[in-house]
Specification:
2 copies of one chain form a homodimer. By secondary structure, chain A is of the alpha/beta class. Chain A has helices at 10-22, 47-56, 74-81, 92-106, 111-121, 149-155, 177-185, 200-205, 209-218, 239-245, 252-261, 278-284, 298-319, and strands at residues 3-7, 28-32, 38-40, 43-45, 127-130, 137-142, 145-148, 162-168, 188-191, 223-226, 229-230, 233-234, 267-271, 287-291. Chain A has a single domain (3-323), classed as 3-Layer(aba) Sandwich (Rossmann fold). Chain A has 13 helices and 14 strands. In chain A, the strands form 4 sheets. A 7-stranded parallel sheet of chain A has the order 5-2-1-9-10-13-14, with helices on both faces. Chain A has a 3-stranded antiparallel sheet with strand order 7-6-8. In chain A, a hairpin with a 2-residue loop joins strand 6 and strand 7 (145-148). In chain A, helix 11 packs parallel to helix 12 (278-284).
Chain lengths: 331, 331
Amino acid sequence: MRVVCLAGGVGGAKLADGLQQELAPGELTVIVNTGDDLERHSLTIWPDHDTVLYTLAGIAEPGQGWGIAGETWQVMGQLARLGEETWFRLGDKDIATHLYRTARLRGGARPTEIALDMSRALGVPSRILPMTDQSVRTRLRTDDGWLDFQDYFVRLRQTPDVREVRFEGIESASLTPECREAIRSAETIVIAPSNPIVSIGPILAVPGLLAEILAARSRGVPTVGVSGIVGGKALRGPADRMMSGLGEESSALGVARRYAAQELLDLLFIDREDDALADPIRALGPDVVVTDTIMTSNSSRARLAREMLDAAAAMRAKRDPAMDPEPRARP
Amino acid sequence: MRVVCLAGGVGGAKLADGLQQELAPGELTVIVNTGDDLERHSLTIWPDHDTVLYTLAGIAEPGQGWGIAGETWQVMGQLARLGEETWFRLGDKDIATHLYRTARLRGGARPTEIALDMSRALGVPSRILPMTDQSVRTRLRTDDGWLDFQDYFVRLRQTPDVREVRFEGIESASLTPECREAIRSAETIVIAPSNPIVSIGPILAVPGLLAEILAARSRGVPTVGVSGIVGGKALRGPADRMMSGLGEESSALGVARRYAAQELLDLLFIDREDDALADPIRALGPDVVVTDTIMTSNSSRARLAREMLDAAAAMRAKRDPAMDPEPRARP
C-alpha cells in the first residue's frame, strides 16, 4: 500500500516510524516541512527532515526527539571557545549531516536529490522528501516583533505570543516532481500529529500541493489525520499556545477546523481524552476515530499507524468493494 | 623587538613558537602561506594558518604536527557513513575552526580580520596574518598531470614527481595593509625552515611583499633564515623531492640558492651536519651560522629562536652601534 505522510519534526517522525514498521520497504513517502530550516555556522540545517531521517534510520536519540543517539559535543565546545553563540545545539555526528548537505547544495544539487541520497546512505527503506526545493522560511510576528522560527522556537523557548505567521518565499516555491508523483500514486494520505500551523501549514501552502491532495481525495484516496493536541495541550512544542495566540481553539476541534477549512480530511484520529469532541468534529465534515494517540514506545507508534492504515483500507473498501482488504469468501 | 616570521606549516609553527617564547607579547607577527588552503565538505580550510594558530595557542597535537591535541573523530566517521571521501582528516574541534571561519567568510569578513579574531579568541599573544586576503591556490604539475596541493600532499602522499609549480591567483593577490605594516615596522625578519618552494615561495610571490622585505633590508633590518633541509633530506614533507624534481639541489645550499636569487637573506642558519656547505653558501652572499637546527622540544624551539634573534641583534648592532643590545661600559 503506497502511503504519503505529511510531517513536521518529532511527532511526525514517530508516526512515520510507525508507518514504516507496518509497511513494506518503499511503500512510505514522508513529505517534510522545510519552513524551519536555517543557516548556522555556515551550515544549512533541516531540523524536521533530519529528525525524520534519524528516526527512520533507527539512529535518533530516543529521549530528546532530535539529534543522533550517543552524540558528543566537541565541535560546539570549540565553537563556544571561538566566541560563537551556541544556543542552537548541534552534535558532532549531526554536524556531518549538515556538512554533507551544505557541500552538496553548494555543488548545485537539488534538496530533494540530497535528501534521497542521505536516506539511501543511512539505509532508510522509505523516501523522505522536502516539501519543495526552494527556500521557504517560517517567520512569526510576536509582541517582540518578527522572529525567525528557530529564534522563537529554540533561543526564546517559545515564550513570546505569536500573532501572525508567514512562510517567506512560499509564493515562489514549487511542488517537486517527486512530491507530485508520490501524491498521485498514493493509496492513502496521512497527516501526522505535527503542529498544524508551522509544520503541516507550510507543506499545505506549497503552491499546487493541496490541490494534488484534494485531487487524490476526489479519486477516493482516503486522507487520515491525527490530532497532536490532546486535552487542549500540545504533546510537544508550542502548537497549543500558537493556536490560542492566533485566536483559534487549542484542541483537537481547533485542529479539525483548520483542516476542515481546506477540505483536507476524511478521518481524524483523536485521543480518548477528547472523546467529547468527536461529534463537534464530525459536524465539520471528517469522520472521527477515538483511540490512544500518544506514542510512548516503538510498538505504540506501530499500533497507531496500523489503526490509521486499517481505517483507510476500510474506507477505500467501502468506496470500491474491489479494494476490500479482506474479501469475503463467495457463498 | 618587533619580529616578522614567514612560515608554512609544521616547521614554521615550531620556530614561530620558539620566537613567541623568546619575545614579549605582541612582538611577533607570523605571515603564513595560504597557497595550501582548500575547500572540503563545504568548509574553507587553512592548513598552514591553523597549524601555526594551534601551536601558538598551545593546543596543537604534539605528535603529528597538525590538528588539536586530544581530538575526536565523530564528524569524519559520520561523513564516511554518508559516503564522503575522508582522506583529508579533520578532527571535531578542528572542524569548529573551519565552521567559524567559513561562516565569517560567507558573512563578508576579510581573511585577515578572521585570523586576528581567532588568535584573540584562543589567547595567542602574537599576530598570525594570511599572506593575502585573495584566494591563491598552489598547483603542481606532476607526471600524473596537474594536481591541487592537498591532492598531492595528503591523498597521493607526495609520491608523484613534481615538474612545475604554479600559484594560481597570485597575480591578482595583493599585499594586505596588515602585512605591509608588519614588515615596515619589523626590526628583524625571520624565514622559517618551511618548504622554500610551496610554503615560503607563495608568500614571497605575493605582489609587493618581497619588495617590502628588500626595502626593510636596505634600511638595515636583518633577514635571517634557517634551512629545513638537513643532510639533503627535508625534516618534514616533500621539499627535498620537490627540489630534486625541479632540477635543484636538495640541500641547505639549494635552499640558499633560492633565497640568494631573490637577495632575500643576510644570514642562513644551517645544521651542524651541513657544516661543509657553509662556505659554498657564503659564496652566494648570505653569512652562515652552523648550529643545531632540529627542533625536537619546546626548549629547542626557544633555543634556535634565541640564537636567530641574537644573531639579528648583533647584525643590527654592527650596522648601527646605537642599537647594540649589550652596550659595553665606557672605560
